[in-house]
Design brief:
Structural class of chain A: alpha/beta
CATH topology of the largest domain in chain A: Molybdenum Cofactor Biosythetic Enzyme, Chain A
Protein name (chains A, B): Putative competence-damage inducible protein
Organism (chains A, B): Paenibacillus glycanilyticus
Pfam family, one (chains A, B): CinA_KH
Strand order of the largest sheet of chain A: 2-1-3-8-7-6
CATH class of the largest domain in chain A: Alpha Beta
Oligomer: homodimer
Family (chains A, B): Belongs to the CinA family.
Strand content of chain A: 15-25%
Shape of chain A: elongated
Amino acid sequence: MKAEIIAVGTELLLGQIVNTNAQYLSRKLATLGIDVYFQTVVGDNPSRIKQAIEIARERADLLVFTGGLGPTQDDLTKDVLAAYLNRGLSIHQPSMDTIEQMFSSRGIHMVESNRRQALMIDGSSPIENEAGLAVGNGLTEDGTHYLLLPGPPREMKPMMEGPASDWLRSVLGSEEPLYSRLLMFAGIGESSLEAKLIDLIEAQSDPTIAPYAKEGEIAIRVSTKAPNETEATVKLDRTVEAIKQRVGEFLFAQEEITLEERVVQLLRSSRRKLSTAESISGGLLAELITGIPGSSGEYSGGVVTYTNEMKHKLLGIPMAQLQGEGAPGAISESTAVMMAERVRQIGDSDFGVSLTGVAGPAQAEGQPVGLVYYAVAQRGKPTAVFTGHFSGTRAIIRIRAVKAALYQLWLKLKEE
Amino acid sequence: MKAEIIAVGTELLLGQIVNTNAQYLSRKLATLGIDVYFQTVVGDNPSRIKQAIEIARERADLLVFTGGLGPTQDDLTKDVLAAYLNRGLSIHQPSMDTIEQMFSSRGIHMVESNRRQALMIDGSSPIENEAGLAVGNGLTEDGTHYLLLPGPPREMKPMMEGPASDWLRSVLGSEEPLYSRLLMFAGIGESSLEAKLIDLIEAQSDPTIAPYAKEGEIAIRVSTKAPNETEATVKLDRTVEAIKQRVGEFLFAQEEITLEERVVQLLRSSRRKLSTAESISGGLLAELITGIPGSSGEYSGGVVTYTNEMKHKLLGIPMAQLQGEGAPGAISESTAVMMAERVRQIGDSDFGVSLTGVAGPAQAEGQPVGLVYYAVAQRGKPTAVFTGHFSGTRAIIRIRAVKAALYQLWLKLKEE
C-alpha cells in the first residue's frame, strides 16, 4: 500500500515547529508494511488543503493527515475533506460527552467552537483520542483510505500506537508485512562503503538495500516483504551475510544505536571504564559519552586541555614536550599518547582516549587544518596512536575525529 | 514570491531522519520576504521527483530542493531537473578542482562517482559549498526559479546563510524588500516572555512579531516590508523599543548568535579567559564554547568530573566534602562553588563556571532529577552560586542547565 502523509498547519510553513510527526508516522507506517511515497505540508487554507488532497488521491492509496482537528477557525481538515468527498459532518456523541465532561469537571465554560473537536465525517470510524479532545477519523472511499489525526504529538502518537494502527491493519487486510534489518557501520566513508557494495545495491530488488550516512556513521537498511517471519528471515539473512562478507569489519551494530552507545554497551558488559583527554574536540567526546543515560558507570571523566598550561597542569605533560625548540609540540603523536595514558591513570580507568589536532579555521603550530592525532591507551597494553586527515567545517572535523577515535576504541573492545 | 521546499531522500520517507531542513529553510525564506506555501518530501526515485517538480512548478515561483546532490546512484536531483528542463549537465571545473584536491591531499583514490558532485545544470549559477563537495545550482526558466542545495544541514545551512541567499536576493529583484530585526533572549522561559509581550504580539500587524524558542534561548523576529531602509528603520525601531522596555534585561544580542557566542565575544573584548568544571553537563559547556572558531583565546580548558575521585584528583576537592556521613556531597551548592573556584585557579582564568546536579533518568545522592547547582567564580570577586530546577529529558535538562550558567556568566560580563 502506498501512503502519503499530509501535515496541515501554517506554523510548519513558517518554520515555527519541526515536522517530527512526519518522521514518526513514516517509521510507524513502515513497520506496518506501508510505503510512504510522499510527505506534504500545507497551510491552514481550504483551497490549498483541497489541492493537496486531490494530488495525494492520485498517487496514494492511504492519506494520513495530521493537524487541523482543533477547535479554532484555522482547524479545517475535517471540513475540507468532507466537502471534497461530498459528505456531511456530524457530532460524535461519545466524544462530545467527553468534551462536556472535561469542561464541567474543570468548572470552565465551554466555548461553542469546542464542539468542532467532536465532529466526524459521515460514514467514518472514530479513532479515539485519550490524550486530547479532538476525535480522529478513519474512512475509505473508492479504494482510497483517509486517516485523520490531530497535530500535537502527545495526542497523535498514542492514537497511532493503538486505535489508528488497529484501523490501518483492518484496511490493510491481506497485504504482506515488511520485515527489515538495520546494519550500522563506522570507520569507513560512505562512498567507500558503497563502492564495496555497489553490485549488491544495483542488483537489489528483494530485499532492498538502502544506505544512509550521518557524520562518521553509515546505516544500511535491508528490507523485504514476506508472508511470514520465517520466509523473511531466510531472505534477509542471505543479503545481510553477503554484506557482512564485504564490510563486516566495519559493522558495529545491528540495531539503531550510535557508535558511542555501542562503546558504552561494551564497556558495561566487560566492566571497563573510560577517561578522555581532549584538545581539538573540546569536550565533544565527553559530551557524546555522557549523553547516554547511565554512562556514569562506564565513564570516570576527562579533561579539555585547550592550552599547553592545562595539558601540563591537569595531565602532568612536561612543558618541554609541548613547546620550545625541538619539542614535539601539542599537536603530535607523542602528545596524543601522553594525553591518553595520563588521563587513563588519573581516572584509574581501563581505557584512555585522547585527541589533539587542528579543527580550523586557522592552522596551528604550522600544522594543517584537519590533521588529528588520536590515541587509545589501555591498562596493561601498549598505547595505540593514529593519524587522521579530516575535511569539512570545524564542526565536521571535530565530529569525524571523535567518531574515528570511538571506532578504534570499539575495535579494541570487540577484540577482547 | 511563493516558494515550495522539496526535500529529496528516501531516508526521510522511511522516517530515518527528521526534515529539519524544511523548518530552517522556511524560516530563512521568511526573512527574505518569501512565502512558503508547500513543503514536499519525495524519495530517491526519478519519476516521483519529476512528478513533484511538475506539481510545484504549477503552484510556486521558486522551488528550493534539498538533498540528492551527493556522489551515489541515489543522488538524482540534478539529473531529473536537467531532464525535465531539457538541459544538459556539465562539470563545474572549480568544484571539480576542489574535489580532486581534497582526495589527493588526503592520499585517497577518488572514486569516479565523486565527479557527480561537481555537476551543474547547463545555464545555472554555481552556489558554492564550503563545507562539502557537492556544488549547489541556481537557475531560472519561464519565470520559475530553481535552487538546488545539498541535504546535510552542515553543508546546506552555510550555503543558505551566504551564496544561496545572495542568489535569491538577485532573483527577487524589485519586490518590496522585507526588513527585520532579530532579538535574542536568555534567562527567561518562552511562556513568561510571551506573557510579558502578549498585547504587543496580539496587536501586531506591521511590523510582525514572531517568537521562536530553542532550548534555553528565545529569538524574536520583528519584520516589516517597506520601500526603503529609512522607512523600515522607523517602524522597526518603535517596535523593538517597546519590546526592550518590557524584557530588555534578558536581551543578550540583536543578531543571530547563540548565548555562548555572545559570551565568547564579551570575553574577547574584555581580554578575559574562562575555564569550566562540569559534572551533570558532561562536557556540553566545554563543547559549546570550543565549537566557536577561535575560542582558544578565551578558553583555557576544563574538566569533566563524573566521579568523586575525579573531582578530588583533578580539582583537589577534599573527599570529606564529597562523601561520608554529613558531607555536603557532590550535588551541593558548596561543591559547585569549589568546582568553579578550583578550575578557575588551575586554568589561571578570570572566570570559572561549574555545574553539578541530576540529569536523570535516575535520581542521584537522593536528589531529584532536574536539580542543578551552578556557580560562577571570578578573579578577585566572591563566587556566585545558583540553584536551578529544570524539567524535560536528560538531554533537555543538560542544555537548559548549561544555558542558565552561561546566562549568569553573561550578566557578569555585561556589568563590567
